[in-house]
Write a structure and sequence with these properties.
Elements lengths: L6 H5 L4 H4 L14 H12 L3 H12 L4 H25 L6 H8 L2 H33 L5 H18 L1 H31 L19 H11 L5 H6 L8 H30 L12 H46 L5 H4 L10 H11 L7 H5 L2 H23 L5 H22 L4 H21 L21
């Protein structure tokens, strides 16, 4: 394991560290500014995805979706704090995989990366499924596979051109989504003011006599996926112009903007329809609400805006998955020749982009429930170990243990570990079984590759070889 840069140097914003990291197989191009990172993160979360989950979570939480969003937002903020700590020490691609491997143990780091890879690899597939479902509702005569192929094809083409063009596209796509969402909220508020469906502004969506902690936790566990964009941003540290400054800033900006958006939108929806069983289809509650508040014309605009979310989300999901594979390949956790190379002209890991596209095309054969059940497992494992990595950094590498460092490097991440463990254990049985199988496959691969752990795990290309001052 490599030694670490001084905390004081990192705190001073010395991004030169990141620029001096050399890689045998070439390096990614640093083209992303803070605004690019923020829009990539927001696009990854797909702001309009809040409408996908509303009906399901409203049913699970018995009409308290905004409260469930507040709970998961608190959990994410604790984890985001740990991400912002770790990215200052490791401004390289890889995210939770890199942090756990460097701060805790190389073999364990591989397993964390393996678990997180499941999420990254399957999210583009789920995105393609959702695209086909929504477009199939508008154009039922067009075969399901056509929409899957078009969605995957467009996202792949933009990623192959280069990350900066994809980022610029996301600025446009996120902007369109936000406009549609704002119009939705305005129409919903107008309906509430006019007393539609007997609605009036109350605090019931946040607190009422029938709130059940278990139900809110279960809803929060589902909604955690809404915030995965900040994690995706951390995988772009090698493509940010100022990673040690802009990645942490982007993380908190994304969570603040997204959290306010999610809570606001679901509040007006829940206020208008406190009981979603009034709607004909709980899963498809949002399009029904769109028609209720704005008629058929607005429903068409709403579906069109959702397709903008599909494209924005698909671009960034594929981008992040490809770069996580690149980090693992470059460091030897996966075959380096295949996964650890980039196109010298575009700076894009082409093979990885195409591999993720091929996996996404399996959306033709998999239904949404099967795909979605596998996502949360790896996400919470990644969050848990990012928090643990900060704690290990404190005890293994930091020389000065002050009250402030105990608070920032032990207490806060420990709370993050506890919260994420609670959410992880709230997952349904299918998610735990499928995730466990995936993790077992990774463990078997690691045992074979390291000859029952007798061989060293692949080395990470780490930060500069200087000691820590705190």
């Amino acid at each position: 394991m490599s030694t670490l840069p001084s905390h004081s140097a990192v705190a001073a914003g010395d991004d030169q560290i990141a620029h001096e990291i050399a890689h045998d197989q070439g390096s990614l191009k640093r083209t992303l500014k803070l605004r690019h990172l923020v829009f990539i993160g927001l696009a990854y979360m797909a702001p309009l995805a809040v409408f996908d989950m509303f009906g399901i979570v409203a049913d699970v939480t018995h009409g308290h979706v905004p409260l469930a969003y507040l709970v998961v937002m608190v959990a994410v903020l604790f984890t985001a704090f740990s991400y912002s700590r770790m990215v200052r020490f490791f401004p390289v691609a890889g995210s939770a995989y890199t942090y756990a491997k460097e701060a805790i143990n190389a073999h364990l780091g591989f397993l964390v990366g393996w678990a997180a890879t499941l999420d990254y690899l399957l999210l583009p597939m789920i995105n393609a499924i959702l695209s086909a479902i929504y477009m199939g509702a508008v154009f039922p005569e067009v075969p399901f596979w056509v929409w899957v192929l078009l969605t995957v094809g467009i996202c792949t083409a933009l990623n192959l051109v280069g990350v900066k063009l994809a980022a610029k596209m996301n600025v446009l796509l996120v902007s369109i989504q936000l406009v549609v969402a704002v119009v939705f909220v305005v129409l919903a508020v107008a309906n509430i003011v006019n007393g539609a469906n007997g609605a009036s502004f109350t605090i019931r969506p946040f607190i009422s006599s029938d709130v059940q902690a278990a139900a809110i936790t279960a809803g929060a566990a589902i909604l955690a996926l809404s915030f995965l964009g900040f994690d995706a941003v951390s995988t772009l540290a090698e493509e940010a112009e100022r990673p040690t400054k802009d990645i942490p800033r982007a993380i908190f900006i994304i969570i603040a903007v997204a959290g306010a958006f999610f809570v606001s939108v679901t509040y007006v929806m829940q206020t208008l329809f406190p009981d979603v069983s009034q709607l004909g289809d709980i899963v498809g509650a949002s399009p029904e609400i769109a028609r209720y508040i704005g008629g058929a014309a607005f429903q068409a605009i709403f579906v069109g805006g959702y397709m903008m979310a599909v494209l924005g989300c698909g671009i960034t999901q594929q981008m992040s998955a490809a770069r996580l594979l690149y980090a693992m390949g470059r460091d030897g956790a996966l075959p380096r020749r295949l996964f650890g190379s980039v196109n010298p002209n575009t700076g894009v890991p082409v093979w990885n982009v195409l591999l993720v596209a091929a996996i996404a095309l399996t959306a033709v054969f998999v239904d949404l429930d099967q795909a979605a059940s596998m996502i949360n497992f790896g996400a919470f494992i990644a969050f848990i170990f990012v928090n643990l990595s900060v704690i290990f950094m404190f005890f293994r590498f930091m020389k000065r243990h002050t009250t402030g460092t105990w608070l920032g490097y032990v207490l806060v991440p420990a709370v993050g570990v506890a919260i994420n463990l609670g959410l992880w254990f709230s997952l349904d049985r299918i998610s735990m079984i499928i995730g466990g199988i995936w993790l077992a496959i990774g463990l078997l691969y690691l045992i074979v590759k390291t000859r029952c752990f007798r061989a060293n795990a692949p080395d990470l290309t780490g930060p500069m070889n200087v000691g820590m001052s705190e």
